[in-house]
Design brief:
The protein is of the alpha+beta class. The protein contains 3 helices and 5 strands; from the N terminus they run H-H-E-E-E-E-H-E.
Length: 107
């Protein structure tokens, strides 16, 4: 559905299959989790300790054409924690690409 909404057809599914083939060599590596989720995708979150990049998604546009927010955890700030909590909820609901188990193990 997302590929249709972004006007890229099956390209997104092909990208997922492609990256999974690269990640295959990580199968069985301790602390590595590759998973799927079925939640509605509002943004892509790339988190690195107390910083994250949030690629917002705009209906009808590919992700590469949407804004990216660079967030840092700040004392007294709530925006970073809101996105971190959202990420954690999706992570917990995800399933392993290899075993089908839930994503309860965090790297």
């Amino acid at each position: 559905m997302r590929g249709r909404e972004e006007g890229i057809g099956d390209a997104l599914a092909a990208k997922v299959r492609n990256v999974l083939s690269f990640y295959e060599k990580l199968r069985g590596t301790e602390s590595v989790f590759v998973g799927y989720h079925s939640t509605t995708l509002y943004n892509s979150i790339y988190r690195y300790d107390d910083e994250m990049l949030v690629n917002t998604h705009l209906y009808g546009f590919p992700a590469a054409h949407a804004p990216v927010l660079h967030l840092r955890r700040l004392a007294g700030g709530t925006l970073f924690n809101s996105y971190a909590d959202s990420f954690d909820r999706v992570w917990t609901a995800s399933r392993s690409a290899w075993s089908g188990d839930h994503g309860k193990v965090r790297p």
